[in-house]
Amino acid sequence: MGTYFTIILGLIYLIGAFIIPKWRKNKVDKDWKFFEVLWFSICFICYVIFLEIRLPSYFFLIPSLFLTIFLVSYFREKRRLVNGLLFNLFLAVGMSYLGFLVVRTVNPLLVVMAGATGIFLLLLLLIGLYALLVFLYWNAIVVLRKEGHSFANLLTLLLAIGLTALLIFSYYSTSILPQWALTLFGIFPAILLYFSVVFYNFLTISVIYQFNQPRYNQDFIIVLGSGLIDGKTVPPLLGNRINKAIQFYQAQKAATQRAPKIIMSGGKGDDEHLAEGAAMKAYALEKGIPEQDILVEANSKNTLENMKFSKEIIEQSVGSTAYRAIFTTNNFHLFRAGMFAKMANLNANGVGAKTAFYFLPNAFLREFIAIVVMRKRRHMIICGLIVLAMIALTLFDYFYVGPVS
Description:
Elements: H1 2-24, H2 33-54, H3 61-76, H4 82-105, H5 108-147, H6 155-176, H7 179-185, H8 187-209, E1 220-224, H9 236-256, E2 261-265, H10 276-286, E3 294-297, H11 303-318, E4 325-330, H12 334-343, E5 348-353, H13 360-374, H14 376-401
Parallel strand pairs: 1-2, 1-4, 2-3, 4-5
Helix pairs in contact: 1-2, 3-4, 4-8, 5-6, 7-14, 8-14, 11-12
């Protein structure tokens, strides 16, 4: 029976894997890779449950509980950072469970997957940090060459230099510093580890949020402004946001014969000749969008104001709070923009426009720093507790272990 089930499930998986790319061709976002991974995960979970039932045991209910907690939290409110933590808890529990199942069943498929995962984790442990450093230096060079030498473009370079200095210090410090001093300087890697975990949770939910798939029943699409070239021209980064909105506009109109209104949101900066919203409207008109389907919000100075003022336009247009809306921005900015929409009590989730790969590491670091600043009190408290704990350990080493040099 086990062999027949495996063959049938394998055939079902192959059929689904073949159909998914064809199905995605009719969607606004034609990317099919996420759905291939999702389909594989569903089939794999079915296979694991089958193995457990044959034992018989029901330990799969433990990771299932963590997955359920994540899904309930995510679909109740997608724009929360805690969702990244919940998903990573599910992954940790799920991987531990699969390791336990491999030992119990010695299933060939699970053994191969566990072996491949083990090799990957071993390589990550041995060369992961060094590979990261090489990547950061390479990325910094590319960004500086293509985007200029502004401070915002130096983030990957600064991170690479900081990690290099930490590695060099860690290598030589054990031979020149006493134990209590090593414990004291452990403050820096401890805080770095904390922010690494926070960044990983942020990156996880940012990636998951990319796959938001709004229905073709929207009343409004908000396009977030991002600055103009020479104070008057829409740059490629902003053009991608507008193009994403136009893509959804045309797809909904074709599917339902009902076009949403596009709100171009962006005020006039000190160095700009006209409001971003006006320049964005002109761009959309050139792309063939009818003027009656374009609204302009020209007073906002930041993303939070984009959301607040666009919300006011929406509610004035419909005369109530009963509306359906989405917003478009670049993919790296998508999750933080969603957080601002939540802060503005705007019932809207986003769809992200693609960004050049070389730009993403620097951009995600910038977004992460902005989110840390948004929650700075919480992070300052946790970092303060880390410092106090390390100082206490230092005092213990000095007075009870002894200042051995």
